[in-house]
Amino acid sequence: MNNMNFKKILSILLLIISLNGCTTLFIGAATTIGLKTGLDERSVSTIAYDSIIWAKIKKILLQERDIVFSQIKIKVNDGNVLILGHVRDSEIRLRMSQKIWEVEGVKRITNELNTKEQSPSYIEDSWITAQIKMRFLAKLTKINFVSYEIDTENSIVYIFGIAKDYKELLLVQDTVARVYGVTKVISYVRVKSY
Questions:
Q1: Going edge to edge, which strands form the sheet with 72-77?
Q2: In the chain, domain spans
């Protein structure tokens, strides 16, 4: 990473601290940027902006009294937000989308919050996600696994990220679909435009 990019990242991270005043969110954003910049298909500035959006959304949702925050996952990629998990009712689900739209830089929201009480399938879902990540690692020369976020909710796999080309996109989707226990694959992957 060159000196100019480092200064940009440092400036953006300092902005996170001043906007949020939350050290935990700062550390999470800094870690995300540091780990992803070398391998991610996004630019350093896009990764940094996505981290800022993520931190702002986390802060907003932490202020909500009607949600169990540990049951919600947030993914941000190029300003596109994917929100997964469980909430008590559809009113809360709608309110989450409205609050996320208030965050500057959000381009699109995909709200996959489930309002039904589901049987807890956390162990099975974690196993499915782990199997997918292991298969991605086994295909390291063909799949840039850092460019993808994988989440499993009730055996439904959500893929979020940027593929370098259509060939990689098809390989990712096929790899996920072949994992035992996956009932459905929902892909929010876009192909990188050059």
A1: 72-77, 80-86, 108-114
A2: 3-114, 122-191
